[in-house]
Design goal:
six-stranded mixed beta sheet, globular, alpha+beta, Nuclear Transport Factor 2, Chain: A, 25% helix, 4 helices, single chain, 178 residues
């Protein structure tokens, strides 16, 4: 998966692929659906968006080109994501009492490339507000997805999340995915 992570890191930040309207719309709907599933904490459905070998990556640095073996905010495989949900949803997870609420907005969805096998590289922008204990935290940034074409649609091979405020101070640790 490291090669896909490097592929996402080394992309032209202004590339735009000449794709069909249907491909563009499918990519947009996929990202909107992902945001909705995160907001509603529909974990099984959200996990189903990821390939079995998929990774969720939030690098610590903007110019970071590798995830594995590097300092990251997140570099999580399917198993690590499952562990995070189990920990956060546990009845004794005091950091999650009361439970938070999230609201994602995804925009500026651009298909950067369409591979010969149908895989897509898609970039977008996002804003996520998190409400917890009478406080709202705001996160903004850029997504870059490597979407693997399957017989049933697309699955996330790697999702890279570059936070605008990645080095900002936080009163409490980021528990959920943006």
């Amino acid at each position: 998966m490291e090669d896909v992570a490097q592929l996402l890191a080394g992309r032209d930040p202004f590339a735009v692929a000449n794709v069909s309207t249907e491909t563009q719309r499918t990519a947009e709907q996929f990202l909107y659906r992902q945001a909705e599933l995160l907001d509603e904490k529909q974990w099984d459905n959200w996990f189903a968006l990821f390939a079995d070998d998929g990774f969720y990556w939030m690098p610590a640095e903007e110019d970071q080109t590798e995830g594995d073996g590097q300092p990251n905010i997140f570099w999580e495989s399917h198993d690590l994501m499952l562990m995070r949900v189990a920990r956060n949803e546990h009845p004794r997870a005091h950091s999650q009492a009361p439970h938070n609420r999230l609201c994602h907005v995804v925009s500026n969805v651009i298909v950067e490339s369409e591979e010969a096998n149908g895989d897509l590289v898609v970039r977008s922008r996002f804003h996520c507000a998190e409400y917890l204990r009478y406080e709202v935290r705001n996160f903004t940034g850029k997504y870059r997805h490597y979407l693997r074409k399957t017989g049933d649609g697309y699955q996330i091979a790697v999702q890279r999340v570059d936070l605008v405020n990645r080095e900002g101070p936080y009163e409490y640790v980021l528990q959920w995915w943006l």
